[in-house]
Protein 1
Amino acid sequence: MKTLPKRSKKPGLAPGTLVYTGHGRVEPAQISVFSYSETAFDEIENASIDALHAVKESQLNYWINVSGIHDVALVEAVGTEMGFHHLVMEDIVHPQQRPKLESYEHHLYMVAKMMYLDASGNAVSEQVSIVLGKNYVISFQERPGDVFEPVRERLRTGKGLMRKMGSDYMAYALLDLIVDHYFVVLEEVGTQLEQFEDDVMGHPSKETMGQIREQKKKLITYRREMWPLRELLSGLLRDDSGLIRKKTHNYLRDVYDHAVQVIDLLETYRDLLSGLTDLYLSSLSFRMNEVMQVLTIIGSIFIPITFLAGVYGMNFQNMPELQWEYGYYAAWGLMALTALGMMWFFKRKKWL
Amino acid sequence: MKTLPKRSKKPGLAPGTLVYTGHGRVEPAQISVFSYSETAFDEIENASIDALHAVKESQLNYWINVSGIHDVALVEAVGTEMGFHHLVMEDIVHPQQRPKLESYEHHLYMVAKMMYLDASGNAVSEQVSIVLGKNYVISFQERPGDVFEPVRERLRTGKGLMRKMGSDYMAYALLDLIVDHYFVVLEEVGTQLEQFEDDVMGHPSKETMGQIREQKKKLITYRREMWPLRELLSGLLRDDSGLIRKKTHNYLRDVYDHAVQVIDLLETYRDLLSGLTDLYLSSLSFRMNEVMQVLTIIGSIFIPITFLAGVYGMNFQNMPELQWEYGYYAAWGLMALTALGMMWFFKRKKWL
Amino acid sequence: MKTLPKRSKKPGLAPGTLVYTGHGRVEPAQISVFSYSETAFDEIENASIDALHAVKESQLNYWINVSGIHDVALVEAVGTEMGFHHLVMEDIVHPQQRPKLESYEHHLYMVAKMMYLDASGNAVSEQVSIVLGKNYVISFQERPGDVFEPVRERLRTGKGLMRKMGSDYMAYALLDLIVDHYFVVLEEVGTQLEQFEDDVMGHPSKETMGQIREQKKKLITYRREMWPLRELLSGLLRDDSGLIRKKTHNYLRDVYDHAVQVIDLLETYRDLLSGLTDLYLSSLSFRMNEVMQVLTIIGSIFIPITFLAGVYGMNFQNMPELQWEYGYYAAWGLMALTALGMMWFFKRKKWL
Amino acid sequence: MKTLPKRSKKPGLAPGTLVYTGHGRVEPAQISVFSYSETAFDEIENASIDALHAVKESQLNYWINVSGIHDVALVEAVGTEMGFHHLVMEDIVHPQQRPKLESYEHHLYMVAKMMYLDASGNAVSEQVSIVLGKNYVISFQERPGDVFEPVRERLRTGKGLMRKMGSDYMAYALLDLIVDHYFVVLEEVGTQLEQFEDDVMGHPSKETMGQIREQKKKLITYRREMWPLRELLSGLLRDDSGLIRKKTHNYLRDVYDHAVQVIDLLETYRDLLSGLTDLYLSSLSFRMNEVMQVLTIIGSIFIPITFLAGVYGMNFQNMPELQWEYGYYAAWGLMALTALGMMWFFKRKKWL
Amino acid sequence: MKTLPKRSKKPGLAPGTLVYTGHGRVEPAQISVFSYSETAFDEIENASIDALHAVKESQLNYWINVSGIHDVALVEAVGTEMGFHHLVMEDIVHPQQRPKLESYEHHLYMVAKMMYLDASGNAVSEQVSIVLGKNYVISFQERPGDVFEPVRERLRTGKGLMRKMGSDYMAYALLDLIVDHYFVVLEEVGTQLEQFEDDVMGHPSKETMGQIREQKKKLITYRREMWPLRELLSGLLRDDSGLIRKKTHNYLRDVYDHAVQVIDLLETYRDLLSGLTDLYLSSLSFRMNEVMQVLTIIGSIFIPITFLAGVYGMNFQNMPELQWEYGYYAAWGLMALTALGMMWFFKRKKWL
């Protein structure tokens, strides 16, 4: 059950009170600022609010990446500097949001879930908030991570369109990375599915059933994240705030297509996982059939002849057969005949 | 089945006849009046209809909370004073309504279900009617309870936006509390689910199955309450009566998001509960397999050798083996060989 | 299967030929005429077509109730007098219609199914046709029955709004009665469900399964009646023929809400009934497990020791144990040990 | 699987090449022409294309019925004479079309499936193409059959509206016959369902399961035919080609209602058939329970006492009980007690 | 699991970098150019980019078929020559696209999946990209194949409308071939289904279950390809780019109908395959019943009489029956009676 998110905001808390409700506070919060134009590029690690203010004044495009949303004060400082509605700030620090797109006067606020495999190969989900303004993108996440590294790299090298296009293209690039990482996670799921299938067909065990259930729960979670993400993307395509330029539409349509593909895969995997339960049950049934067949065959052959042996073990004084010279061999013959008859019967039933 | 609501209004009763159709009449009915502005605040416990009339005259915002809807006369008095349509009054005193939003000339009428855990940890559901007028909110419920206590507290202390915003914000605050309490109840459900899962995988019993079914019924009820509540909220967002101010929209959108999250969780839990039935069946099947395997193995090993023992217990006069000096040991050898053969067979089948 | 309606109109019959296709012709057909205004009220039992014509001339509101639609001639006479399209007359006398709303130039034609419990507590369904004109309502049904009695009573006493409002309110009152009677029938279903559940958990029998299936069929029928009835009601709310006055809208909305509640309940019961099949299967599986466990335990304990007894029943001449003074007791000891070993094994497996 | 249609048009065939792809070429193709007005009526059996041309010239309404669509040349001749698009002609001779409505400049083209019971009571499906022009209806089918006989009869006798209304009413009459014949076929299905139910509850056999599956396949086919037929009818109701007169609308609405009823029935039967699989499984489970109970009871009673008998069949020299005078009777007593104990145990478990 | 597509584009790759992500590079890439008008026709095998440029200049209609999309450079050369957006070029070389229709300024870009049976009868799926411009169609695929051969043939012979109509008709012809090949593949599936059914009813084996699952996965894939293909076709019908002429609409509507038929078949097969799992389980259950019945009957007949034999094998000194002259025969009689009693019992239960 640990894969199911819980929402633990105390009911009745006045809106407007910033409280972090996530769990893992791994590293100190930190702001990175990237300002860029087609020709210029500047990167400030560990920027202060003042540095941020300075960048805002310059007319360059800029991307601010805040990692460590547990640092509520920092988030509030950034939000105040950039003029966010306090509900936006609340949503940023509550990592149990549903992916969504909200339109405010001067910016678009997006929440998405970022999936990636951690060092030990487990799928980890993290909330990313992206605020898209006229010439800036501000992203918030908990762990610094390196999911966005390719974007940083492209900014630094100036390759591709990264520095040539506006901040809407930057938001697209981040969303593209988020969606593409789902493919990586789903490939892992696909591999697991194949393993489960082999297990279920070969040696159905309780453990496999438990693992299948765990996987099913994970897929449910991914699904709850992807469907609204798809809505978010289609919302961006329909957006009329003027923040999304025409030229970026083709790119957004491309991410949207990828998101639909992810959902397709998710639904396919869900279907296949559900099918596994049936497969497990029929595999068990099949095995039970085998087990019972063995018992029935052995039972049906030996029970009647044991009875015959029992008969000639009776102690009646007057039992003529016992006196026959070849009585014993006749008894064996009778028992062999009975057993063969049974075997012929099972042969005909195709049980043997 | 006790979780399923019943509607027992006698068919054929003329509309307009007020009859309370709920069950628990716990405490005497009571009116609390809270009048407030950004600077002023007044609270009247146990207010009379006259006090209510006085508050209405003052130009302040006010919130009237009526607890004890079994007191039909009181509800009628309040309703008449405030000018409610008699169908509204009927709906208030029939606690089997479906959550809904109805628009009347001077006010909006909303019905919702309030869920909370009572002292002994059981989920209790109660109908709340909220009437939102230009500068007032009137809420009706059966039990006084303290679900709305945080709002009272914020009114008293004047913290937050409570006293600064209009009555639409007050209605929002009540709805927010109602939705947030579902999370508390659902967290309880989540814990139960984990318990069920362990039970079903470990020691599937009839009791667990019964409890799962009870839980399923509860979730069905919650679902029947939440879907229309979500409609109610989206109705408020689309409302064009002028009673919902622009500024309050962001807040309502926030509750709406929470309602969607509750529904997401509900659907997830429903999925997981349904899966448990399959798990239970496969758990039983698995156990049956084990049971049968034990019987089959023991039967298959001992039935043939019991037959052999039976053979040498026969009383034929002419049975040469019986005279052999080491006949007895040879018989033991034969029986051991047979048993070992069977065990080898089961080993190969991976049943041992 | 008797709960499934059949449609037996001979294919190829020219439209326009009136033939009654129902089954139960219980009582002679009969027309009751109620004419009323706020101050006046007149009731004619067993009215003739002439009386009907007279009432039509008076400018009063009137309600004509025709019971006994098997009397095709009578229906045709009434229909001709009131100027019905011949397709309407056909639909009235074919009691296998789907609930629907049809708009004609001077009136609205509605078909609904009326459910009630008969004297012996069985749910009975009957087709009711309601024609709503400017100042009249004409209802057709087969059995006189007393479902509409409360309306008659309210007309007679003049209580409530019955005589103050127009014929649209009269149509509403009839529909309200029809919808409300579903609650009565569903309450019965609820009680049955509880009984089934107890049966299935306690002593799953074939009979219960058959009854569950019968109940399922009934719910399917109710559903096929309620969904179109809901459409009918929402059609009335959207109607633009001018026959439905503004003031009646709130009342119709109320019936509509009740219809939605009935559908909610129906879907809930359907869900619960479907769940019962799973419960039945798992109950059987559980019982089978118990049965097999008993056999396995007894078999596994006694089969090995019976073998031991068999061994010492062999007649070999040279069997040293047989000569031992305490051989017999040693054999008992060995057998007891074996049995205890088996019991310990089962104890560890938690089967005992 | 024979109930599933196959489409065997060779891929890559140029559109415009007429090739018949059906199977049964039973009788020579034939054209019947019926020309009529309110006062006149003429019928030509085995008409030639010239006769057809003559009728076209007369200003009467006419209905041309072509049976034997395997005669591609004939269909092409008729089509060319009437000015059909070559895609229409192709569709007419490919009897694997999905029911559909297509609008061309001068006529509407409809494809439907006609179901009827053949002489031996089997449901037979056949494709009917209907072309509706300003004053003509042309229908194409394979077998002459007598499904449309009632229409011919009404034309001949001049009863009803047949000759008074236009060709749109004629098209309606044909569609009405097609839809009504589904009721006949479904009644047969209903009877089968009852039979299956009795079989499954009474003596679940493999054959029943196979028959249920066959029936399921048939229902799938009917469904694939009815849903698009309903669309066709609703398309006719929305049609704005001017070929459907206002007066005919009420009649088309009537057929549409019947089509919806057929679909309702189909869905109901599908539901019930699906339920039968569960019923079958639970019936088998129930029977297995019974079987195992018998084995368990007999096994549990006799295995222990057989063991006791075995004990006293041992040949130890020193077995004091054997010497007791009433030892034999004591042994019987012990065995009886054991058996009774077991029976008491089963009684308590309600297995006896 | 091999039937599930994987998407292995490395996340973070800058859009605009062309990398082939398919697997099978079978043959060298190759361009064929077909230029045609009603009177002229020219075919260039192994055309160069220059040849392509020349054709572009001529005012003829032309079709360029590029096989071997692994040759990224070639695709880029063609794309640049024709002025494609670089996202189009990317999609062409990534063979994991979802079928879709995209509208660009001068052309429509379509992606579809082509299914065909390869030499060994296995269904093979391949991505086809079709770009439709004013007077040209350019198609991209991996393997040269001969699915499009009929179109080439019709171009060469000049039969049919191929050369008379514009490039939109050419695009239609290609799509028609693609859709029609699905029927061929589905016919194969139908045949398999019949085989499975026989296997499952006759001798349910684990292998069949595995094959059914494989088939189910294939159908899921086909479905994921067909639904978007249907959308593509309906998109073409609604297209307002001016590239689809009015005259071609009837033809596109025809392919659309075929696509709907394919989907109908797919859903039917899915239904039938799902049903097979139930059939398999019930077939196993039925067989288990048979197996257990045999064991129960044999056990119930022989266990009691073996007990009787055991009783008379006891060694009590005082056992009067043993001395009776006809004791032995009496014992046989008793045992026969017991066995017959049991058989009568089973006969009555209809187990024999």
Note: The interface with chain A takes residues 313 of chain D (CB under 8 Å).
Protein 2
Amino acid sequence: MRATVIHAPHDIRVEDVPDPVVQQPTDVVVRVLRACICGSDLWAYRGESARKPGQRIGHEFLGIVEQAGSDVTGFRAGDLVVAPFVWSDGTCAFCADGLHTSCPQGGFWGSEGSDGGQGEAVRVPFADGTLVKLPAEAASDDRLLTALLALSDVLGTGHHAAVGAGVKPGSTVAVVGDGAVGLCGVMAAKRLGADRIIALGRHTARTDIARAFGATDVVAARGEEAVAAVRELTGGAGAHSVIEAVGTEQSMRTAFGIARDGGAVGYVGVPHGSGTGLDLGDMFNRNVALRGGVAPVRAYIPELLPDVLDGTIDPSPVFDLAVGLDEVPAGYKAMDERTALKVLVKP
Amino acid sequence: MRATVIHAPHDIRVEDVPDPVVQQPTDVVVRVLRACICGSDLWAYRGESARKPGQRIGHEFLGIVEQAGSDVTGFRAGDLVVAPFVWSDGTCAFCADGLHTSCPQGGFWGSEGSDGGQGEAVRVPFADGTLVKLPAEAASDDRLLTALLALSDVLGTGHHAAVGAGVKPGSTVAVVGDGAVGLCGVMAAKRLGADRIIALGRHTARTDIARAFGATDVVAARGEEAVAAVRELTGGAGAHSVIEAVGTEQSMRTAFGIARDGGAVGYVGVPHGSGTGLDLGDMFNRNVALRGGVAPVRAYIPELLPDVLDGTIDPSPVFDLAVGLDEVPAGYKAMDERTALKVLVKP
């Protein structure tokens, strides 16, 4: 089959690789209908996260089960399924707690020895603990299929940030980061009943989506200027719930700078860079909590799926460029250069 | 009157100072019956927290209202009252939220221009928003009076850590710090229904109190050895709720080291030292939250007071040395040298 392989920073290729097959009785093989490129894939693309030459890449996909191992009970050939961005056994204490990302048998698509999502097919370990079935009729609805793909990462990750930030009905929420995750954070905050949602962003194409997703205010500034603007919008106090969807020192500083005393920063931006951006003394004096991390999206799919299916929420607008598999390298380039927000891949 | 004054590191004196009087119509003057020395007072004593020569010190006290300003409605001369370690106006949005420590008109006893708790009397600003009335009959019950004094800081601070750590009925909790706050954290965790409470400490006099307060296990180790021991006690997973009651880099590292993935560290140890001890990448990968800070004990007194009054909880054993006002300097020395756990002051 054809799949995306990363050889070095900025060297992404689509190549012939061995066809995946069921290796364990708990595996299935999924033929990919939709995949996409994640902002966090760019850390590998830019060389900020190490990859071995030849590793697969891509961790978001949905598709059709092609082959199922003998121990798989929940899926059979022909089922339409979505995969969260980590696989998990579904049977351990962490999976039972809804923290599938800490499953001792879990792993990330594209890690060494595993398939990546940006390919024609994927071997899925622990299929019963990992995949979620989708209605078969969604396969023929292009818009819905795209929206459902967001369940594999960005929508659940935005939701995780909103949960970590403690969004409640009536909350005032601020969102740092105008990428697809930040925009899904806006959507999640709205869905959880936030009354006021302040999106930080300077790209009108993105802030327009933020407004469509529920942002009531847009702050087109960064750093100290953004902090001052959010404080002014909130009577000086800041937002009780802040979603941090970038992962840099600067974005973390901004997030705490706009957080209200007693509030929380829900962070899902993969931390990168040398420092944390955290001022523990300030967090302590103002009782601002930090909660979040890698999102256990598998746990959230059952809650979010019905709202996507019935159209209550539609995250599909975060995908603003669609490419075929052979154009994936161009897709990375477009996201790296910020000419695309999030790239959809149709193998 | 006589009051404790800090002139320089290790130079604590009890001196004649002006008698406090009502200055604002919202003030009262409280004659101190019981005060005490806090672990955080030692940072000033050791020169790790800056003080201007001549500042008062001490932030925990209870006593009898001696004089009340004309606008004070909740208290009159003769009332027995306890003061939380910050004053607060009781009328702002933060006080309404239960975050009295962020009250814009609030302040700490012993800050410049204010009285400290370790003296014969204290001028209390915003008395209606600050003080809590106690039953008059408690004044004649020495043991109860000592227990009630814990409401001014250590008990509410231990409770804040337990709340921050997310202690729930059935929880497994680990407590880093065997000082009075850590021990009150044990008590608070037990009160909130924790099933298993692992206290870290190497001083049997202290861990005996921890056991009396509800600890089910004691780990007499520090650092990596303590992490390994707690992990072994918890089947490798760690404690879902960790109370951090020290405030050093090392204690924070230990706290996160023994926290279960998906859990939380509730921190109330005043951060000191150059670094934070936080590994943001590890927190992110394991979804361990950090929540806490300076405890809004005023908010907790109404909840905790009935349990102290009826004997459901009795924090008085944390006070293991009682001194008169003139012996306060010796009390600091005893706590600094760890020959006393927490020093009670009877002016």
Note: Chain A is about 30% helix and 25% strand.
Protein 3
Amino acid sequence: MEFDFSDRMKGLKANAIREIFKYLSDPQMISFAGGMPNKEALPVEILSELSEKLFKDKSIYGVLQYGSTEGYMPLRQSSVDFVKRMGIDGIDTDNTLIITGGQQGIDLTCKVFLNKGDCILVEDPTYIAVLHILKTYEAKAYGVKSNHDGIDTDDLEAKIKKYKPKFIYLVPTFGNPTGKNYPLSKRKKILELAVKYGTIILEDDSYSHLRFGGEYVQSIKSLDTTGNVIYNTSYSKIISPGIRCGVCVADKEIIAKMILCKQATDVHTSALSQALCDGFLRGNYLDGHLKKILPIYSSKKSLMREAIKKYMPTDFECTNPDGGLFIFGSFKEGTDTSDYFVRALQSKVAYVNGIDFYASGDVRNTLRLNFSNSTDEQIERGIKILGDIFKER
Amino acid sequence: MEFDFSDRMKGLKANAIREIFKYLSDPQMISFAGGMPNKEALPVEILSELSEKLFKDKSIYGVLQYGSTEGYMPLRQSSVDFVKRMGIDGIDTDNTLIITGGQQGIDLTCKVFLNKGDCILVEDPTYIAVLHILKTYEAKAYGVKSNHDGIDTDDLEAKIKKYKPKFIYLVPTFGNPTGKNYPLSKRKKILELAVKYGTIILEDDSYSHLRFGGEYVQSIKSLDTTGNVIYNTSYSKIISPGIRCGVCVADKEIIAKMILCKQATDVHTSALSQALCDGFLRGNYLDGHLKKILPIYSSKKSLMREAIKKYMPTDFECTNPDGGLFIFGSFKEGTDTSDYFVRALQSKVAYVNGIDFYASGDVRNTLRLNFSNSTDEQIERGIKILGDIFKER
């Protein structure tokens, strides 16, 4: 039969990164595309032990049974402690909602705030998924200019006035895709603007623990005394993305609304995943695990930077992030990275075209490279292949 | 600050069953409210073994890593075999999408098909969650009359013509809340109407394996040659609800759209949950497990029926289902079960008011009783308490 799909499906295409995923099953492929943790950075031993212990404990019956939408109470409690690391204090479990990965926090924020035709502001470029999610709400994102240290607050203020956004979506710490880390002064200014204009900030923070250089900067949420900030974080990058678990912290009124919406989607996040994350946090495995994985990421970033210097054309400029998983680079104007994408895939190297990260503007000369997932040898070889391709322009 | 929530949040209240959940943490409470499997019916030993094996296998790296939105391929494959039990044949993995519990299948169907103001048809009474989910899409459900053997097909045809629904939501096998099992002739008639009027059927089937009496009836999807039927099932009731895993089977075009929407919500279902469900299915544990749990459920249903006979007022009439988890009952007109609800909770017994299951009509004299979750002693004692309360009308 002919299907009469909803309006939101018109023009909804697969998120570019998820599309590239399909090619990654090819074992020959060197992927600089996804944001996958390194295989060595997956705490298999710890999770194996935690799982074995859990299945022997009588709490397993509660874990395998239906749970509450808000989340597994032990994990809500340990999440309250966890976010103190980002300076977030003075909250209780009613300020938390356990989510099925950080992305669900974005989806629920959209569901709770956006009507069809509403708009939000994002830094340009921004996390690709937020642009995809917005389409499912028939809402629009406007891009705000970005400087070397993050979103341009003058442009932000001008666009808040112009567009009256429902919220401002930001990844202030090692932002995806650029890896920028906003200084404290900028974070304060952004919050000041949000309060002044009565706007929500959705602070998405999946990367702040993956800091291998620079100074710690507290989260925008930690500065929030008015309830303007929704703070969204994930256990994907520090424990495991495959188990889909994160936490959202916000004003209790917002959390209560999000719970109503989550009830209507997946009822609750896998309680097995929640119990494992809780065991990981309570067992104080995090610091030891970070101590193990951060040198790996730091070394891989440096290696990729060196390979870029060695192999990429001289007009290629790229970021040098102190954390996160990505290097973002650009060629001189006139180069369209998507023209070389298929050739790169044929040569068994995947990257993400920068254009997909932009809400506004037609910026075609950028690309994002993930350095965390590949072996050292793959980084060297993959960048050499890309260098050869782009040198032939 | 004052929050400017989206229109869909207006009047969105907690689903009655999820609200009752909060009271269930009281260990004294006898709950006939949720649809929870019995503790003894949770395959803890099997899952424990599967989990231990999985963590020792090299496939664990893939499980803990980001996976594809479509689902963990081994589970998509074993799900193709699984649905053959309900007569669904001739499909391949592209007809399947792994979902974070059966409820996500309803949510994704709504997302793919419904615009604000659209409507669907449901049997009256119907599964409470579908009414809640609909509100998040600002869509409306119209109730169709129900007979002793399921939805009234004359009323269904009349209402298809009148309302032009985007889809018809049905739980044809041991439907929640009434436990009715539609005969094959009715299933054929419903499909015929859907094809005639170009309507989608969302066949929600979480209970067909929980059959302890009567005859097997094949699913509506098994009769579908035109792609009109979306078939939604869950591993919650036969493996574990806490791990949130189910499968949706539909025309490839619909599945492709659902994948786009799922990308924008939780990226993918916990791969750990998926791998455990796959292990359970491939290990051929299902038949043995059903052999163990069905006599428990059958005996509990009989026990509850006997207790009802013994303790409930004589005007209370109830169903005698051959499967599923619920008995649905009604008092004579004039009794409003919600008037007695708080008193029952105070007396430490929880049930669900029938009114919450109705899309149309003001039916106040019904209630739903779950028989699977309580101990035998609790069933006897709980029904006695309810009997005492309702006898005082």
Note: Chain B touches chain A through 89 residues (CB under 8 Å).
